[in-house]
Amino acid sequence: MQIITISPRGFGANTYIITMDNQTAIVIDPAQPRIADELEKRGLAATHVLLTHCHFDHVFGVPALQEQGAKVLCSEQEKGLIGTDADVFDLFGAPRTPYSVDETFADDEEKILNGIPVKALLTPGHTSGSCCYLFTAKDGGRHLFTGDTLFLDSIGRTDFPTGSIAQMRASLRRLAAMEDMPVYPGHNEATTIANERKYNPFMLDA
Fold first, then answer.
1. What share of the chain is helix, strand, coil (3-state, %, to 5)?
2. 2-205 is classed in which CATH architecture?
3. How far apart are CA 59 and CA 150, in angstroms?
4. DSSP assignment of 104-172, as one string?
């Protein structure tokens, strides 16, 4: 399983491209329209787009991939926030990029996408429907994509619509209880569960 990180140009989130066969790909939080070009350069076709949450800086690239046939998935709780004030397009004066959700995840639900087991973990706090995605590789290695729930030594904001510091603390406790594994956040560099348990002041305080 190959994980490709696309850092944003200007303001935006990290985008992750996951492929096992070097032909098909799962894209997490396509932040910018150029993600479609990045896939084409690598000879990859996106079959699924996974959204950790619906904030504008994580979804600008969704319409282009959906037009190419990719299915868009998010948590059941987040689906209802799309197109509302909770996506913060209006708050930041960002032009809306219409897209639809094809399928949802329930909390702890696992789906097999392109032969890869993917489990959604509901982690509200940044938004009420924020979730993390747990990928299990063929060798048994596990990889956690946390969106704006958990960053290197920090967390996402809780003062946006539907955000909650109490829910965030509960979500951090859930993540802290997991085994050590790589963590791929929505912003900044990758980290690990062990590192965040030891050094992240928000996780220590949760």
1. 25, 30, 45
2. 4-Layer Sandwich (3.60)
3. 18
4. EE-TT-EEEETTEEEEEEE-TTSSTT-EEEEEE-TTS-EEEEEETTEETTEE--S-STT--HHHHHHHH
How do residues 152-178 score in pLDDT, each as one tens digit? 999 999 999 999 999 999 999 999 999
Where do we find the tokens 């969704």? 62
Question: Residues 136, 73, 10, CA angle at the centre, nearest 5°?
Answer: 90
> What is the domain partition of the chain in residue ranges?
2-205
Pairing of strands 45-50, 24-28: parallel
Contact of 157 with 163, CB cutoff 8 Å: yes
C-alpha 189: how far from chain center? 14
Residue 176 burial (C-beta neighbours within 10 Å; 0-12, 13-18, 19+): middle
Mean pLDDT along residues 24-51: 97
For 92, the enclosing helix (H) or strand (E) is none
Q: Quick: pLDDT tens for 67-118.
A: 999 999 999 999 999 999 999 888 888 888 889 999 999 999 999 999 999 9
Say what the pLDDT of residue 94 is. Answer: 84
